[in-house]
Amino acid sequence: MDTPVPRLALLGQPNCGKTALFNRLTGARQKVANYAGVTVERKTGWLTTPAGRRTQVIDLPGTYSLAPLSQDEAVTRDLLTGRLAGEAPPDLLVCVVDATHLQLHLRLVLEARALGLPMLLVLNMADVAAAQGVRIDTACLAERLGLPVVTAVGVQRHGAQALLAQIDDVLAHAVAPHPEGVADQIPDPAELHRQVRALLADAVHTPVQRWALSDRVDRWVLHPVWGYVGLAALLFLMFQAVFAWAAWPMEALDTGMAVLGEWVGTRLADGPLRSLLVDGVIAGVGGVLVFLPQILILFLFIFVLEDSGYLPRAAFLMDRLMGTVGLSGRSFIPLLSSFACAVPGVMATRTIGHWRDRWLTILVAPLMTCSARLPVYALLIGAFVPRRSVAGVFNLQGVMLFGLYALGILSAMGVAFAVSRRTGGGARTPLLMELPAYRLPHLRNIARGLWERTTIFLRRVGGVILALMVLLWFLSSYPAPPAGFTGAPIEVSWAGRLGHLLAPLFAPLGFDWRIVVALIPAMAAREVVVAALGTVYALSASGDQVADALGGLIGSQWSLATALSLLVWFVYAPQCVATLAAIRREAGGWRHAAVVAVYLFALAYGASWLTYRLALAWGAA
Amino acid sequence: MTDASLVLPAPLAQASPGPVSDTGLDTWPLHQPAVLVRLAADPDGTQAGTLRRLAEVGCLPGETLRVVSRGWLRGGPVAVRVGQATFALRAHEAALLRVRPVSSSQG
């Protein structure tokens, strides 16, 4: 091990397919999608070249130039120029360009060439370019640039063969030491542009009619009227589908859990172990597991939208509104990521250059309804909102779900408006966002994403949720009630006592002590509340009720006002430790995280109280 | 987060004032090709990053630009075709791009 392992860095403009190529080279499974800024931090992987050389591969955030405007772009610049403490520039720079956008992408190649690192050029998406009739004379390009040039298709099985062979070749001969004092001035864009033009004229033949399909689609998608109709219809369809398509797999899972609970119940003697398995594990964990189909349907929509190139168009349509409330146009994609989970959403704010804009985005990101809230909504809606159609076409449950998502979005707009009014800025925040060509979503990409989501969900269920449920079962079962106690044993347990202690605080919201007990472990993850309710109700139910599904149980015990109040609580729900930790990390301090936690708690409390009072006033007792 | 050192290279910042007849791309009619005359000056120094990025993505004098879509309401964003790529720009960003019709004599 005396020779250091060679390090190879992937450099390119946003959305040129670096990460797809990285995954292809290293067997990694980093997220890829069709919009700029999916990768916001560097990722490292390993590959072995055909000649058996073990090489480290670094995937970098895409950048338009080496003069950064935002934090993710600065990461790229710093790594390449050796500004990172204790880290030398890479041994080989693999410059990736989208072969269908050479005019835009080649300028970064010219800029990078000035760094003086050993380098090779990859014309990615060569298949799409060929299909569009773009002919590239790679030999001429290689000669003019003085670099090896290979073509690649990052999304195809053997799409990186030529690149792998070339890496071997370059590493074998790359004896040129790094030049001292890397070029550090910003090159003149006009001069680079002239050079790119000259290169294109000599080495590339581009047919005149390009982008025609994307243009025709955009006439409708970006239309001032039809664009919005389409966006609204799409979102509506998404929430309808979450309920409509998930019905039968959920019923199957529900039945499966009930059967399993009964089977375990009859096999085991009455005692603590049976209670732990039936009331703690199956009632709790199984209760969350049932919502997997709905989460997958939500992600199916998200992945198709991401892969097709629609997302930046949606950002375009929403930009006027975002600008009005003081949010940057760049906030849209981080906020959209927050519908999956606020943690990547908060991380994605690194693409926002201005700190004020970035902080505002972080501040409202937790108000976007994350997928962990879906089980909570689905449970309560399923229990309290009748499954009937509205106006003949819409499912009332889907309408309700749409409403809850809309409430989160409107609240985020309100908060952003209030904060940006107070801080005064927001008049001229930048957008400058690329609208990529449309693409048919890759089935394999989507299938892999869904599989990944399934494993993440199952790991959460089998990990943190299971652990919390065992803990909660323990706290809810001990100390055992004194002889002669007639109520449910949970009432005198530690959890029960804590619930009773805190109950007065939440009584104005219509939450009883059992809900309070369930809200506490939901600090770790929001969907835990569903599992916790399952366990708490299983333990407080008298014998014959236990087999009843949680939905039916709360449906018969809670008032509609309480259910609505709890739903609204979860629109704001401050309790997610992972999000607060991400905010601390990204915003640089617990102070910021504390601000978010406190304002969300205040909003949640206020809105739930209002909802409960209004619901009672309208007779929903 | 913008570096203070990130300023436009001299030749661009001092681009010729251009003919008085140039118009901001924000008010340019939809689908009509326009020739970029110059990038607007940056009086208060707040748009330096944006101006440089615009130049980097190919918005350079002499290029032909086209507004392919205009958002909702006044002051909304515009989608601009630059070379092979399309960029969404807010109105104040599009206004930095000073253009004139293609037909008039090319400089």
From TrEMBL, chain B:
Residues 23-101 form the Ferrous iron transporter FeoA-like domain. Residues 1-24 are annotated as: Disordered. Keywords: Iron. It holds the Pfam family FeoA. InterPro entries: Fe-transptr_FeoA-like, FeoA_core_dom, Transcriptional_repressor_C. The keyword DNA damage does not apply. It comes from the Bacteria. The keyword Iron applies. This is Ferrous iron transporter FeoA-like domain-containing protein. It comes from Hydrogenophaga electricum. The lineage of its organism: Bacteria, Pseudomonadati, Pseudomonadota, Betaproteobacteria, Burkholderiales.
